[in-house]
Amino acid sequence: MADTGQHHQHQQPQQTYERYMGGSPEAERRICERLAAELMRVQEKNRRASRAADLERALHAKAALGVENARLRFHDDLPEALRGGFAQPGASYPATVRFSHASGVRQADGAPDLRGIAVRVAVSAEESHDLLATNHPVSHARDAREFVAFAKAMAGATTRVRKAVALFVKLPLAVGPSTAARMRRNVRAGARREVTSLAAETYWSRSAILWCEAGPVRYLLRPHGHGPTAKATRGRHDPQYLRRDLETRLARQDLTFDLCVQRYVDERRTPVEDGSVEWRESVAPALPVATLTVPSQDLDTAGARAASRRVETMGFNPWFTTDDFRPLGNLNRARKAAYEASAAHRHGLRFVTGEPLRNRALGIPAEAAFRLLNRYVPWHRLPLAASLLNLVFLRKALRRRNLIDTDTHEAPPKTMPVPAPPDERLRTARSYDGSYNDLSRPAMGAVGAPFGRNLEPVHRPDLFDIPNPVTVSRQLLHRDTFLPATSLNVLAAAWIQFQVHDWVNHRRHKPGGKCVEVPLPPGGTWQNTPGGPPERVMRFAENEGIELPGERPPILFANAASHWWDGSEVYGENEQTAKYLREPDGGAKLRLDEGHLPLGPNGVPLTGFAESWWMGLSAMHTLFAREHNAVCDALRHAYPSMSQESVYHTARLVVSALIAKIHTVEWTPAVLATEAIDLGLHTNWEGPPGSWLQKLGLWLLESHSLTGIPHTLPDHHTAPYSLTEEFVTVYRMHPLIPDDFELREHHFGQRLETLGFRDIQGVAAEAALRKTGLADTLYSFGIAHPGAITLHNFPRALQQFERDGEIIDLSVVDLVRTRRRGVPRYNDFREGLHKQRLRRFEDLSQDPETVARLKDVYRSVDEIDTVVGLFAENPPHGFGFSDTAFRVFILMATRRLQSDRFLTVDFRPEIYTPLGIDWVQKGGMKSVLLRHCPDLAGLLPRGASAFAPWRNVQDRVSP
């Protein structure tokens, strides 16, 4: 067919006919993500309104036909200008076809509605093309905002009255009266005509796509060779009459449609961005290019019914195509995120947590009241009930404003092949690298995913060395006298390092590679390598950053560990390591050498993460490797038919969840020893206690807290899940580590020996543990106090610490890393977490000597390092660290649980086994200790966690 003479228009560059909502592809992407979330809420509302057991598609919920044996064949005389990609003369491809009703709620075929068709053309195993069209030439919506506003207004509208309210009340409130009127006209024009046969309808794409070199086109599917039937007498009474018509037709003949394209002319008459404008055939003729054939068949066979069920599980998306046929226009660009979200939600891969109207309505004034109150009275000085509610609203504010997405997203959207469904094994087991925890976004939280942010990063290379971090360390961090935390034991110090090694790991350049150089104060020298010469700079390996496009500063870093709470410090962060740590021949248990971790060639035990190794870590890793094996034995005994692989993965789930529970309801309340925190954290895991008044308050203001997080759905809130650089910063708790340790025998309290940290660090750690024994080691740590998290208490042993062939001052490294990663300085840090700024040094500390040193080191309060400010801050009564650090904690502590599928929707007996759920729910740190060291039973504290000081056995030998 000849060219129409508009070839010069078809060659116009993309930007002449595409405009991005919000002014840029990235701004539009963020809008589309929010709209996609709204559509998932529409699905939920439609499900509730229709009382359906399962979620339906957000739109086109009811299918009239689904077949897999259709075929699309391009015409032999396909015009030269329209040839490209899979569109070639005579080319024929198998196709899947679904006819549907446009509503998101199933209703009788005679109800006023639009009808649709979805076609998937399979070109090869790697290439397919989804074509979506509706039996009205224009959309009721100009753009995605209007489209979603209409869907929200109509959600749950299953009766005439509700539909009228939606169209004449809700819709005008959402988009304005004039826009609502235009949308109603378009909807009526499409839906008021009674449809007698879906085979006799014409279906228009309504949005444009690129057609190779031909430029933008809209396409339509027009019936070929079969006209409308006479009006069916049973149409008004049979809710499935359109399905019956298709069954009858296909029983005797093929259904055929001409695929036609209309080519772009100009922005006024054939706009790309406005879906509400019809491309009239008088302006853009419909050129037939291919024929779609649904072959004659009996739809009432087992094979046809099975094919129909498979079609119903499919998620169609116009972006399942190639770049040559890329969708165009805002409606289409929004479809990618919206259709992905809707399909994932329908298949149980993505979830929506709604907020009841009462919580939204009452929460606004309550939050404002607490915000005003906190100007005069901090949350921790309020009565218990008020302080708990205050924390609820503080967490809400933090979730809204302090979760910053650092992922690199595609903007504008890109075409893609149809994604393969997740491996079924990943539905019931954690992956080795943390991928597929969120089955709809496999890379979220996996090894290599970037650290997120709670605050906008600040990149100031001019301040990297101001003030000199070595001076800061010597004046404000160095431990002159050990300051103990008398409410805790050293197991608490070992535990948090055990946890941090599961959560975070910034990859470093190898020794000799890219490094950081910190100039020393005048007259100072440093030995950077064992046996190396004294130098005037302190040197250590730089972190490996993620390269960012454009002029963006290098402040994004990947996590070399999984972000999830998955026990990777025990199991490893990849499949190779995990399998190597297991017993030979695919056994379910972890390898142990007479109850101890086997040694690697470097003398350090083989485990998931063995950096910065010392005796406390060796004890923790040994204890939980034994715990894994105990779970394996229990599972094999209870479920003899379970495979070794299933036993291993189930035991990993159980141990990881038990670790998360211990940290949530035991370690943290021990460190933040207040009634409000203890109650709040137990509520996180178990739900609120039996007080009807407290439950009523939560029902009115925050109903999500009425059950423990394990009984809720995953919720990432305002950003994809990740741990953050600020989270890393507040967990810099090195002052917990003492410089020397007294080891004692637990039966008689006899002192065995006193060792310095260097004597139980690195290759010496496991030898010391085996010599002392696990029980005596745990007892020795249980009766000893860790250091307080405060200034002037950084372990001396860590200020000259050998690691990877380097000698480093870890206190200097902590300061330098925080600055270079763009974490704001302390005053900006606390303001960003909704605390008042400091005006003078005396606002930070009441100790005159500390204030004097701060003034000597820093020129102003705005210059104070974040780590220094967190250590200097006077914490609330009972707190082991500052209220500012606590704000990151209260945000991220629940997030680590709430985002994790295996600690929410899949924390259930079907996944963990009934034994596994019972093991977690009834277990704790004390049960772990006693399972593997039963002799310690009489030494554990009564009425307190295992991280509180243990009973000290009196040494009978001492005078």
TrEMBL record:
This is Catalase. GO terms for molecular function: catalase activity. Residues 1-25 are annotated as: Disordered. It comes from the Bacteria. Its cofactor is Ca(2+). Pfam families: An_peroxidase, Catalase. InterPro entries: A_dioxygenase (IPR034815), Catalase_core (IPR011614), Catalase_sf (IPR020835), Haem_peroxidase_animal (IPR019791), Haem_peroxidase_sf (IPR010255), Haem_peroxidase_sf_animal (IPR037120), Oxylipin_biosynth_metab (IPR050783). Its EC number is 1.11.1.6. Keywords: Dioxygenase, Fatty acid biosynthesis, Fatty acid metabolism, Heme, Iron, Lipid biosynthesis, Lipid metabolism, Metal-binding, Oxidoreductase, Oxylipin biosynthesis, Peroxidase, Plant defense. CDD domains: PIOX_like. The lineage of its organism: Bacteria, Bacillati, Actinomycetota, Actinomycetes, Kitasatosporales. Residues 43-154 form the Catalase core domain.
